[in-house]
């Protein structure tokens, strides 16, 4: 099986959103995906793009992707923030995730970033084991916090 890794293009966005929805189902939170295809496209390919992605293709179809943006840490400097690494179910365990993760590491090195950060659900054992192969550090003691658009419009 041949896997091609390349930079995502605007025309990939409908397929990428399908994969986002697949990930949300896997993470038991399909109702949490509220971004529209247009918003997603604009954020990646509009006048002020904020994310970049690499896609994995097999047999002419996108079977996975990794989307990231630059995060700035006042303690560490510029870091690559991996928002999502998604491989469609039938291609998991076939090295697609490894290819995508490796290209992210290469990208972080090339851009001179001080590191790479991401989140993983504490129950997602396959993902945790995958990241452990890279000797990734798993931080304890931090809680995720957020405000929705509806919440901040109240203030």
From TrEMBL:
Q: Does the keyword Amino-acid biosynthesis apply?
A: no
Which Pfam families does the protein's record reference? Acetyltransf_1
Superkingdom of the organism of origin: Bacteria
Q: Show where the N-acetyltransferase domain sits.
A: 3-154
The signal peptide, as residue positions, is none
Q: Which UniProt keywords apply?
A: Acyltransferase, Transferase
A GO MF term = N-acetyltransferase activity
Q: Which family does it belong to?
A: Belongs to the acetyltransferase family.
Q: What protein is this chain from?
A: GNAT superfamily N-acetyltransferase
Q: Which source organism?
A: Mucilaginibacter lappiensis
């Amino acid at each position: 099986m041949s896997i091609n890794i390349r930079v995502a293009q605007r025309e990939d966005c409908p397929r990428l959103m399908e994969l986002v929805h697949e990930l949300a189902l896997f993470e038991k939170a399909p109702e949490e995906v509220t971004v529209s295809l247009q918003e997603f496209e604009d954020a990646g390919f509009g006048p002020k793009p904020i994310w970049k992605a690499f896609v994995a293709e097999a047999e002419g179809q996108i079977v996975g992707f990794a989307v990231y943006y630059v995060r700035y840490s006042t303690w560490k400097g510029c870091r690559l923030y991996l928002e999502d690494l998604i491989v469609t179910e039938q291609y998991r365990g076939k090295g697609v995730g490894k290819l995508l993760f490796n290209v992210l590491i290469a990208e972080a090195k090339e851009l001179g970033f001080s590191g790479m950060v991401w989140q993983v659900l504490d129950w997602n054992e396959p993902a945790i084991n995958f990241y452990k192969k890279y000797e990734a550090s798993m931080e304890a003691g931090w809680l995720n916090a957020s405000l929705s658009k509806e919440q901040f419009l109240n203030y």
